[in-house]
TrEMBL record:
This is Nucleoside phosphorylase domain-containing protein. GO terms for molecular function: uridine phosphorylase activity. GO terms for biological process: nucleotide catabolic process; uridine catabolic process. It comes from Vombatus ursinus. Residues 28-258 form the Nucleoside phosphorylase domain. InterPro entries: Nucleoside_phosphorylase_d, Nucleoside_phosphorylase_sf, Uridine_phosphorylase_euk.
Length: 271
């Protein structure tokens, strides 16, 4: 294309010098909400002309939010990956830092995803392209997951593990919840489903990992998904912890990723 407008990011190849703005990026942290982004970086939003996404950059670290669910993160990833390409970035590591519902593990734990699975526990993402269902691979980078697990030894105050992550299209019935506006199954059916999920190695549920793994894999980006669990779905559906506790939990993956980045940059000084 003579010109490419990254519409949802309010950036473009003719209006912005993308290599000058982003050429040194080595780490991209993506997360759901823009507020959480603000807590991460006290910086000027790069995507000022749009309220779809917010983006902040500190040296080699780019942070961007992706909203909720597969369609929202997918749009952001298309434009972000093109941005990295136009900026001539190389050796980029991309990490989704998120929240999730845990299965059979203590709330506050971190799950580093090895493979994202769908609601049938299959390690795949079904993308509809034109009128064809295209099945894409959802495995994440194993070495990166191990490196992150190693970094977690520096933050022993919360358990961290590697496991499968189930990615759904909905927060309520789609995640086997009984507390939505619609509720079409029994508590027994719900527990049977979640226990079967646990037996296949699934340790948490969220709503973006499958398309994230698939798109990053297809584009050759080393990617990881690191989510804190806010509740144990074998015990409840409602997220009923006090706001302060939830905010503290959300810091867990952030602390881990900050150690990981500092270590990679040779700037980690354990206290
Ligand atoms: O934005 P985060 O990482 O918290 O994402 C999870 C999955 C859904 O987008 C959202 C539902 O509460 O939480
Ligand atoms: O249960 C949960 C908690 C956070 N995010 C989800 O998608 N599910």
């Amino acid at each position: 294309m003579d010109e490419d407008i990254l519409y949802h990011l309010d950036l473009g190849t003719k209006t912005h010098n993308l290599p000058a703005m982003f050429g040194d990026v080595k780490f991209v942290c993506v997360r759901g909400s823009s507020n959480r982004m603000k807590a991460f970086e006290d910086m000027q939003d790069i995507c000022t002309g749009t309220d779809r996404y917010c983006m902040y950059k500190t040296g080699p670290v780019l942070s961007i939010n992706h909203g909720m669910g597969i369609p929202s993160i997918s749009i952001m990833l298309h434009e972000l990956i093109k941005l990295l390409y136009y900026a001539k970035c190389y050796d980029v590591t991309i990490i989704r830092i998120g929240t999730s519902g845990g299965i059979g593990i203590e709330p506050g734990s971190i799950v580093i995803t090895d493979t994202a699975v769908d609601s049938f526990f299959k390690p795949q993402f079904e993308q509809i392209i034109l009128d064809t269902v295209v099945t894409q691979n959802t495995e994440l980078d194993k070495e990166l997951a191990e490196e992150l697990l190693k970094c977690s030894k520096e933050v022993p105050d919360f358990p961290t593990l590697i496991g499968h992550t189930m990615c759904t299209y909905d927060f309520y019935e789609g995640q086997g919840r009984l507390d939505g506006a619609l509720c079409s199954f029994s508590n027994e059916k719900k527990l049977d489903y979640l226990q079967r999920a646990y037996k296949t190695g699934i340790r948490n549920i969220e709503m973006e990992s499958s398309v994230f793994a698939a798109m990053c894999g297809l584009c050759g980006l080393k990617a990881a998904v690191v989510c804190v669990t806010l509740l144990n779905r074998l015990e409840c559906d409602q997220i009923n912890l006090p706001r302060e506790v939830l905010l503290e939990y959300q810091q867990h993956p952030q602390k881990l990723i900050s150690i990981f980045i500092k270590k990679r940059l040779g700037r980690y000084n354990p206290k």
